[in-house]
Design goal:
This protein has eleven helices and 16 strands. The protein is an alpha+beta fold and 364 residues long. It has three domains: 156 residues, no CATH class; 89 residues, no CATH class; 50 residues. The chain binds calcium ion (3 copies). The site of one calcium ion has 10 residues, from loops.
Length: 364
């Protein structure tokens, strides 16, 4: 299921970790290609969790009971594939827009799956959300905090499907171990740990926003913000309003360079970020105007396998190298899902001039 692609993040982020404290290297070392004398400190290696680890670390807010065995997991996967295709057609129709009107009008960036009075079940790249729309109040999305190990069956189109009862969200699925392959769009490999389970998450858990900053605790934990601090990076802007909520912005020549490189215009929504993996402070200190960013350092990637990073950090950037031939010109290599190339940044009269060159296209 595509929408589960990004769910691994929960595993890599512990919400109490201060992102700023890990980095022992100098800003120069983290930002620039420097010829090294001596040895690099070896990186910690990813250790694959066992099935027992997965059960033991299963999110506490998700309760589950095992149903009487009804369906094999293989059949569930086949069923899901068919239903997802149906849904892809359905979202293009007017019928869809009318059925989910009150939610869709306000928050078109979500894909809606089911409706139940003042609630809708929806998804975005982070996973499943519950969206509440009561009367004239603004629609309020709450992230469900399902991790990649909670595989949800695609039952949303079933005529008798309900997701809300007894003050909890109920979903059927399985507890699985996921092994991802890097080449998109190959489906991940699933190993079933518990078949045919019913997940339930109490509404009170889902709606909990301890610091009242507009993001529910489960979402903050998932993307690595502080659920009990309105302003995670202490820069005066609350998490919900901050376009770079994990790192305080600091103006500098090279932050301005990164702003010129990445801060392209795109619809600004509170529920979608551009994720960037970097140890360079000039990069994570940018002050974006057009898009929302989440920066992570490489220390935080350790718990996940290198090959799953493509799914979350869609563009990868190298460190900066000074151009040997042109003064005031700096080069950065990049790679995204479409190809790889080079970004050249020239500093002229206090302004950055950026040119991007694609060297290699992947696929067709
Ligand atoms: Ca919050
Ligand atoms: Ca917060
Ligand atoms: Ca802030």
């Amino acid at each position: 299921m595509k929408f589960l692609n990004f769910l691994f993040l929960a595993a890599i982020i512990s919400c109490d970790k201060k992102p700023e404290t890990f980095n022992q290297k100098s800003i120069e070392e983290n930002c620039f290609q420097i010829v090294k004398v001596g040895k690099e400190t070896p990186k910690k290696q990813y250790v694959e969790p066992s099935k027992e680890d997965i059960l033991q670390n299963f999110p506490k807010h998700i309760h589950f009971v095992t149903n009487e065995h009804k369906n094999s997991f293989e059949n569930v996967l086949k069923h899901n594939e068919i239903e997802i295709k149906k849904q892809q057609e359905y979202v293009k129709t007017n019928e869809y827009k009318i059925y989910f009107k009150k939610f869709y009008e306000e928050l078109p960036e979500f894909e809606y799956l089911a409706r139940n009075r003042e609630f809708a079940l929806a998804k975005n790249k982070y996973g499943l959300w519950l969206i509440e729309k009561t009367g004239n109040q603004k629609a309020k999305p709450y992230f469900l905090g399902l991790t990649q190990n909670a595989f949800v069956n695609y039952d949303f189109n079933a005529p008798n499907f309900t997701f809300l009862s007894e003050n909890a969200v109920h979903l059927s699925g399985s507890i699985v171990k996921v092994t991802r392959l890097s080449s998109f769009p190959i489906l991940p490999k699933y190993e079933v740990i518990k078949d045919d389970v019913e997940f339930s998450i109490p509404l009170a858990e889902i709606k909990k926003d301890s610091d009242q900053d507009g993001y529910n605790d489960l979402f903050e934990q998932f993307i690595g913000l502080h659920p009990t601090q309105k302003d995670s990076d202490d820069d005066g802007l609350n998490d919900f309003e901050d376009a770079n909520p994990r790192y305080a912005s600091v103006s500098s020549k090279f932050s301005a360079m990164y702003e010129a490189i990445v801060d392209e215009t795109s619809p600004k929504t509170h529920y979608s970020f551009t994720e960037v993996l970097t140890d360079c402070d000039y990069f994570n200190q940018i002050n974006p105007k057009n898009r929302k960013f989440l920066f992570y350092n490489t220390e935080e990637q350790i718990p996940i396998k290198e090959d799953v990073l493509d799914h979350f950090f869609s563009v990868k950037y190298s460190k900066i190298s000074e151009n040997k031939f042109y003064p005031n010109t700096y080069d950065i290599d990049y790679a995204d899902q479409k190809g790889s190339g080079n970004i050249s940044a020239e500093f002229i009269n206090g302004k950055w001039k950026i040119s991007k060159k694609t060297n290699l296209y992947f696929g067709v």
